[in-house]
Structure to design on (481 residues):
């Protein structure tokens, strides 16, 4: 006989709200990249305007999770789910912040000539966005295997960010007049690298929820997906 | 001091109903071990096998081994001897209603022939202090009956009565389920302190209570022990799907 139907319905509601939050954060990051590639400042405005809604939803989700912890005394997979939601919620809000940071840089870059910089921001952005998308897909499907594949991508994003640092530093030395554009691009690369980190955190939380293993800081990643429940 | 309890191939029947099926576990000394599971799963029968109360029912029988410390309780000792080593506290407080508080505490000792007044006085004070009841009743020990106390006090009186005979093991069958939250907290605090001296086995339907008081937890279902592990493991990441379904309320 199924029990605690109301509680499980509230868990479903919590998941649904987090997915709304995820959609908003993902859209914000995509828009900020579109603003970069097109240098369209009106898209930057859309990113700025979406931030208060993301922040509001973050508080709402935290409150829902807090209520469930206080009122339902969840156990085992339900407890892990709620803890994961709280952490993923914070990471999604930070992804939204990174989108705003990128949009701010794009707006700054608008004051300067649009030159060809030695950094492939769209590729870095596409990789970071793919990590977020995969991590959220893993959350939707409770798929620890898929979540683990996200962890593998983080090194690529880090490498691209590092190479952006070296190529843009060299450019600044060689052509100091391009320092403002180079610095802005450098910061955007750094913002995208942080988006990848948040996606990694989300994937780790999915593994914790589904498998019950804490894989943060490279602890037990292999076992986390091979051990059965 | 408490002793380890080793259970091997324990089976129990009521008539033709096989209520416990091949139970194997080791309950460590001086720890609290919680047993959880739906009604009728066999956890109370299991506890009753640990002090040979199960066999008091004419239809009931049990096979297998239960070793407490060095003693095989079904081979090396009589039921009377076992019940001196194993105290039990039940769901409903059951003090002897016409006896004074004092006489309730020493009833077990008197049954065993103790008459020395000084030892009896000392035992009453020690036991009531262990049960965290001394301060509340010390002036009324012989004036008030056990039945005149509140439900929570009665249950602590029953714990005092159980520890008065200096057992090695304390069995508690839902000891706080009939009590209010304040009395429940007192009983839980007591369990925490008592396990320094006794091995405690507690049957409970309150999973938060199991999580609060016990280091280890066993989950029973349909006469079998599905899972036995640290309480932390059972309540955060149990190995067996049936355990998880039960503690998360997905069946009951």
């Amino acid at each position: 006989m199924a029990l605690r139907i109301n509680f499980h319905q509230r868990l479903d509601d919590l998941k649904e709200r987090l997915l709304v939050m995820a959609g908003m954060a993902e859209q914000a990051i995509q828009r900020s990249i579109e603003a970069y590639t097109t240098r369209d400042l009106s898209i930057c405005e859309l990113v700025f305007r979406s931030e208060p809604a993301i922040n509001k939803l973050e508080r709402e989700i935290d409150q829902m999770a807090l209520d469930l912890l206080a009122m339902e005394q969840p156990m085992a997979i339900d407890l892990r789910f709620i803890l994961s939601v709280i952490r993923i919620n914070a990471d999604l809000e930070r992804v939204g912040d990174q989108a705003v940071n990128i949009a701010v840089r794009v707006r700054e870059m608008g004051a300067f000539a649009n030159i060809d910089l030695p950094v492939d921001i769209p590729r870095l952005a596409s990789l970071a966005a793919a990590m977020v998308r995969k991590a959220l897909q893993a959350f939707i499907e409770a798929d620890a295997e898929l979540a683990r594949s996200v962890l593998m991508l983080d090194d690529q994003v880090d490498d691209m960010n590092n190479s952006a640092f070296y190529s843009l530093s060299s450019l600044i030395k060689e052509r100091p007049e391009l320092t403002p554009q180079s610095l802005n691009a450098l910061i955007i690369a750094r913002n995208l690298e942080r988006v990848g980190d948040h996606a990694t955190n989300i994937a780790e939380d999915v593994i914790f929820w589904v498998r019950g293993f804490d894989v943060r800081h490279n602890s037990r990643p292999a076992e986390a997906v091979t051990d059965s429940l | 001091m408490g002793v380890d309890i080793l259970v091997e191939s324990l089976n129990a029947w009521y008539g033709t109903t096989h209520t416990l099926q091949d139970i194997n576990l080791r309950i460590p000394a001086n720890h609290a071990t919680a047993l959880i599971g739906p009604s009728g799963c066999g956890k109370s029968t299991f506890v009753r096998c640990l002090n040979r109360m199960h066999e008091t029912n004419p239809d009931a029988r049990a096979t297998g081994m239960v070793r407490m410390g060095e003693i095989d309780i079904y081979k090396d000792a009589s039921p009377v001897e076992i019940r001196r080593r194993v105290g039990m506290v039940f769901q409903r407080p059951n003090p002897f209603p016409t006896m004074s508080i004092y006489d309730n505490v020493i009833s077990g000792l008197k049954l065993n022939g103790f008459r020395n007044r000084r030892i009896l006085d000392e035992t009453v004070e020690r036991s009531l202090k262990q049960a965290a009841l001394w301060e509340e009743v010390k002036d009324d020990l012989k004036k008030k009956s056990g039945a005149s106390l509140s439900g929570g006090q009665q249950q602590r009186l029953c714990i005092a009565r159980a520890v008065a005979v200096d057992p090695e093991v304390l069995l508690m069958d839902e000891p706080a389920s009939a009590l209010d939250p304040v009395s429940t907290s007192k009983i839980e605090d007591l369990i925490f302190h008592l396990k320094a001296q006794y091995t405690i086995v507690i049957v409970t339907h309150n999973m938060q209570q199991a999580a609060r008081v016990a280091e280890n937890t066993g989950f029973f279902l349909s006469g079998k022990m599905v899972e036995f592990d640290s309480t932390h493991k059972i309540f955060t990441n149990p190995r067996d799907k049936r355990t998880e379904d039960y503690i998360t309320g997905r069946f009951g």
Notes: The domain at 5-94+168-247 of chain B is CATH 3.40.50.300 (Rossmann fold).
